[in-house]
Amino acid sequence: MAIFAETITVEALESDPYPIYQRLREETPVAFVPAINSWLATRWEDVNIVSNNPAIFSAEDDDAPVVRHFGSPAIIHTDGAVHKELRKGLAAHYMPAKVASYIEELARPIAKQHIERFRHAGQAELMSEFFEPVSVLCLAKTFGLGEIGSDVLMDWFHGLAMGAINFGRDPERTKICDDTKAQIEAVLDPILTRLETEADNSPLSHLLRHSMPEGQVRSRDFILPSVYVTLLGGMQEPGHGAANTLFGLLQNPAQLATLRDDPKSWITRAVQEGVRWIAPIGTQGRSPVEDFEVGGIVVPKGASISSVLASANRDPAVFDHADEFDMSRKPSTIASFGFGPHFCAGKWFANAQMEIMLDVLFEMLDDIRLVPSSQPEFFGWEFRAPTSFKVTFAAK
Question: Residue 190 phi/psi, 5° resolution?
Fold first, then answer.
């Protein structure tokens, strides 16, 4: 009789991974899943070991979908000096003090402008009309791509995602990703040409020039894989995390009322709980540099193993009533932004953006309710969020 991990399909993971993670944590917390050609580590303890020990579990994995589709060196799949070089080139603009200096002026007007477009209609589809466009525009404007429209940017991250989730080597997903990269490179070409001769203060410019000798810039082949990673994660995570948080609040009217009564005290805790409960980015990929035992199982050298951050966030050994949304739970470390040297450098940018999006939403709209006949349907295990989010409301 096949063990449970051998029966798991990509389709089942994308539909709802949480029951799968629960059973894996209970039965085989470190298990090889043939459908994705990867091991999954699902308990908090094992996820921490795999993600937080780069000397044993390398981020460099040539078989990872991101590497196969985006190329190398990609910032999330490289270690050592190259990783530090790329991270320093990107991170400076997204550190806490820097984010605090510009995030209100950046994000709040964009969020308000989008709500103004539908606030008098009494209904909206929040993913396409609010969460995703606000998220992509905020990242683009900080990154150095401020003139590109939200529709194009949303197509970019949906197209790039097809490559990043393509564990099954689906040729259709490969084509979508390749076509998207070609579109991005066509837009980036004149921007990079300008930045190669005229520096500005954008992360894209900094990535080209940071720590380089005077008058020299990095090659496009060197930076483009990390540009793709940044566009994908940076554009989708805040919007999807805010949507996941709102869904949790709407399932718990008493908590929503508490937040509305005192947003300053509760908005940060609500967002942290939202991205714990449904992590918008589900895994960190690694590969052991030698045969190594974790969770009582020997994972062979060179294998792909995913630290399932979304599962660690639901581990009952760490979180009481872990499957429930509860913004009143005691603040603690969550796995959503990863562990170790590859801890998400955009955490503070993403958190601030999510808080502003929800604050503006509650400020401008009253009596937000899910449409009973069109409940949000979630999709994904690498990236998880509603595919649509229809609500009604009374505008203030």
Answer: -70, -30
pLDDT in tens, 276-308: 999 999 999 999 999 999 999 999 999 999 999
Phi-psi region for residue 103, left (φ > 0), alpha (ψ -120 to 50) or beta?
alpha
Q: CA-CA distance, 340 to 333, in Å (whole number)?
A: 13
β-bridge mates for residue 394, sequence order: 366
Report the C-alpha gap between 297 and 295 in whole angstroms: 5
Bridge partner list, 41: 30, 307
Structure tokens, 307 = 């630290």
User: Which of 203, 179, 210, 224 has the alpha carbon at shortest distance from 72?
Assistant: 224
At 347 the three-state DSSP class reads: helix
Beta carbons of 186 and 220 less than 8 angstroms apart: no
H-assigned helices in 144-198: 150-164, 171-197
Tell the residue number behind the tokens 């470190």, with chain if given. Answer: 30
Phi, psi of 365 (to 5 degrees): -125, 135
Preceding amide of 109 cis, omega within 30: no
pLDDT tens digit sequence for 193-227: 999 999 999 999 999 999 899 889 999 999 999 99
Task: Give all domains of the chain, ordered by start, each with its CATH number.
Answer: 4-395 (1.10.630.10)
Rounded-to-integer distance, Cα 45 and Cα 122, Å = 46
CB of 197 within 8 A of CB of 169? no
Backbone angles phi, psi at 58, to 5 degrees: -80, 145
> Per the structure block, which two tokens stand in for 26?
């209970």
Element (H, E) at 132: helix 132-143
pTM for this entry: 0.96
Q: Which CA distances in Å does 24 have to 136, 282, 287, 365?
A: 34, 15, 20, 41
- Alpha carbon distance 122, 365 (integer Å): 9
Residues in Cβ contact with 202 at an 8 Å cutoff, skipping those fewer than 6 apart: 93, 142, 143, 144, 195
